[in-house]
Design goal:
alpha+beta; nine-stranded mixed β-sheet; 14 helices; 19% strand
Length: 432
């Protein structure tokens, strides 16, 4: 391990998990007026440590994590009273947002000369929902009331090259997904990947005006006018011209590429539409894009869109290894605050995964880190709260060495052919 690199990343971590800074966040938000036993810093670190290292099923688990880390006799009731404050979710959200913003590092780059190298970033947008206690249905109404009367949705904008969330919002499950798309004005020279819930002609038009690019999966109900059509072999399909999409027969054998047009109140919007048959799901998939046909083949578009799966892997880590799940509480502030605690804990694990790659030159699996970081993270948190710089550095280095050995990506060669590197991405192994 190269000396200096690890301590630089540790310094960044300590600046975010700084006692004075976190206590100040708590005061600014109104979470506390005076620093007593359960200070904002202690509560935040206890939440991060407990959510990172153990299975959290009840508030008692978090209380035990607090007392184990800081000692002393903190009764459950006054501890619970801190969590039920209206400011608790605001405080934990701010802590999580600081972690998300400050612990992002670039772990992938696009090879020079690769088709997608024209983009500064590849942005993925999606959301993930889960049920909360039914008694919270007035605060967090669910879309499927018969099954989940109360549910939340976590809306995420992910930076693929950093392998982490850029922006996160927690809302009731009934709130519209499109409201959380990145502002079109921020998407110049960037590529957006989004699923069919985000398809909007108006938004696509805005993206093109701002010189943003996109591959968005559309719903099967779309019915634009076809301006031109070619199959995957480049043969022109003249009989498609001028017809509506619903008026033509589609082939399941090979994907086809159309130039299509929608009429809007302000004019018309033209895009490429690539249609391919999914033998697994027995449906046609519709991908709308403004990527140039001269530069990006049908297969390039389909391969790039598969990268959207990276955000699904992020959601899986949150739910499986960071305790993002339904909690047995009827208090909305507690429920939301614990959601932010889970997201913050996962952010720390991903940071450890990414810096291990940068420091050691080993391709790291974030999923494996999410599973096994429990064996080294607690030691890091203990050294942090004990304010022992030497012990903290040793724990930090032990964590990196352990993860480099135990969390390697299983199939790096396959990644280049059909996985996350297939469009010309390559891992970064140095400090950005």
């Amino acid at each position: 391990m190269e000396q200096g690199k690890d301590s630089a990343f540790l310094d960044r971590f300590k600046r975010v998990i700084d006692e004075g800074a976190i206590n100040e966040i708590g005061k600014d938000i109104g979470f506390c007026k005076r620093l007593r036993v359960v200070t904002p810093f202690r509560l935040a670190v206890a939440a991060l440590s407990t959510f990172s290292c153990t299975a959290v099923g009840t508030l008692a688990d978090l209380h035990r994590g607090f007392t184990a880390l800081f000692g002393g006799e903190v009764a459950y009731k006054p501890f619970h009273n801190q969590l039920r404050k209206e400011e608790f979710p605001l405080f934990m959200r701010q802590v999580a947002c600081e972690l998300i913003g400050q612990l992002a590092v670039k772990i992938l780059r696009i090879k020079r000369g690769a088709p997608f190298s024209e983009f500064k970033e590849i942005v993925i947008q999606d959301g993930s929902s889960f049920a909360v206690k039914d008694s919270l249905s007035k605060v967090f109404p669910g879309r499927f009331t018969a099954i989940s009367p109360a549910a939340v949705e976590v809306h995420v904008t992910m930076n693929l090259l950093e392998g982490s969330a850029q922006q996160v919002t927690v809302t009731a499950d009934t709130q519209g997904e499109r409201e959380h798309l990145p502002e079109a004005s921020t998407m110049k020279n960037r590529l957006l990947l989004a699923d069919r819930g985000y398809f909007s002609i108006e938004y696509i038009d805005e993206l093109m005006e701002e010189e943003g690019s996109f591959i968005i999966r559309a719903k099967s109900s779309i019915n634009p006018v076809i301006l031109s059509a070619v199959n995957s072999e480049g043969r022109v399909l003249k009989h498609f011209h001028g017809k509506r999409l619903k008026e033509v027969s589609l082939s399941k054998e090979h994907p086809i590429e159309l130039e299509v047009e929608w009429n809007t109140s302000e004019g018309s919007v033209s895009c490429r539409l690539i249609i391919s048959w999914s033998s697994k799901h027995k449906v046609f998939n519709y991908f709308v894009t403004n990527l140039s046909a001269a530069k990006y083949s049908i297969q390039d578009v389909l391969t790039a869109y598969r990268l959207r799966w990276q955000i699904e892997l992020l959601f899986k880590e949150w739910k499986s290894y960071a305790n993002l799940h339904r909690f047995n509480t009827s208090k909305a502030p507690i429920a939301e605050g614990l959601i932010w605690a889970a997201l913050a804990a996962s952010t720390i694990k991903r940071y450890l995964a990414h810096i291990t790659q940068l420091i050691t030159g080993v391709e790291i699996s974030t999923r494996k880190v999410a599973m096994c970081a429990v064996h080294v993270l607690l030691e890091v948190f203990i050294a942090l709260v004990r304010k022992s710089p030497y012990r903290l550095l040793l724990a930090w280095r032990r964590a990196i060495t352990f993860l480099a050995s135990q969390a390697k990506r299983a199939h790096p060669a396959r990644d280049k052919k059909s996985g996350r590197l297939a469009i010309g991405l390559t891992p970064v192994y140095d400090i950005p």
